[in-house]
Amino acid sequence: MSIETVVVSKDELDMLMPLIVEQQHDCGKEVNLASTRAFFEGLVGHEASFQIMAVEEGVAVGLVMVDPIPNLQFADKVAYVHDVYVTESLRGVRGIGALLVAAGFVESMRRGYEFAEGETEPDNSPARKLYNRLAKKLGVGCKEVDSVRYLLDLRPGIERARNESGYLDQLSTPRLLSRLSARPAADG
After folding, report:
1. Facing residues of 144 across strands?
2. CA nearest 50: which of 136, 144, 113, 99?
3. For residue 14, is pLDDT > 60?
4. Is 103 helix (H, G, I), strand (E, B) or coil?
5. Helix 13-26 crosses helix 33-43 at what angle (to 10 degrees)?
6. In the sheet that 50-56 helps form, which strands lie side by side, from edge to edge?
7. Alpha-carbon gap, residue 68 to 49, rounded angstroms
């Protein structure tokens, strides 16, 4: 069974909604399905903001959101990769969260974002290591901005994509992204 990542469109909302309901319940929120669906219908399909879901056998098992944020210190627009969610039964066992984060960075490069930013909790050591590992594998820079924020310089990946036809498509393949998200045997 393989996981694929898909940029969410309005056509995939029916597949995504059960995962959104699960995520909302996990956050302790009461779910109004009609208003939640209307909210996501307003989000999907935009060039600047996008959502990527992980899908296994036609079922959404994970989601990451990406929104533009102003950060005039680095660029006019920075991709903010956030709200990574993986269905409870698959958390921590198959690298789906890492797969989603990597897919968010790759799609950000595809859309011309020169920088991306991600956050994690200060005590989440695996996630903190993930940002650095993914940056190396994707061939981009990574800088810890503070104890919870990471800024990735996507320009090297964008430049490589300009010079190597199909480069971003190669990064987007589930097989390669799975290898990108795999934890190395020894994390320094």
Report:
1. 150
2. 113
3. yes
4. helix
5. 120
6. 4-7, 50-56, 59-71, 75-86, 115-119, 149-153, 141-144
7. 6
User: What tokens appear for 9 in the block?
Assistant: 């469109």
Question: From CA 178, how far away is CA 161, in angstroms rounded?
Answer: 20
Task: List own/partner pairs for 11-15 with CB under 8 A and 24 or more apart.
Answer: 12/44, 12/53, 12/60, 13/37, 13/40, 13/41, 13/44, 15/53, 15/55, 15/58, 15/59, 15/60
> What are 72-88's pLDDT values in tens digits?
676 677 899 998 999 99
Q: What is the rounded distance in angstroms from the CA atom of residue 56 to the CA atom of residue 94?
A: 12
Pairing type for strands 75-86 and 115-119 reads: parallel
Q: pTM of the entire structure? A: 0.85
Distance CA 153, CA 172 (A): 18
> Which secondary structure element, helix H or strand E, spans residue 126, and what is its range?
helix 125-138
Specify the amino acid at residue 170. Answer: Q
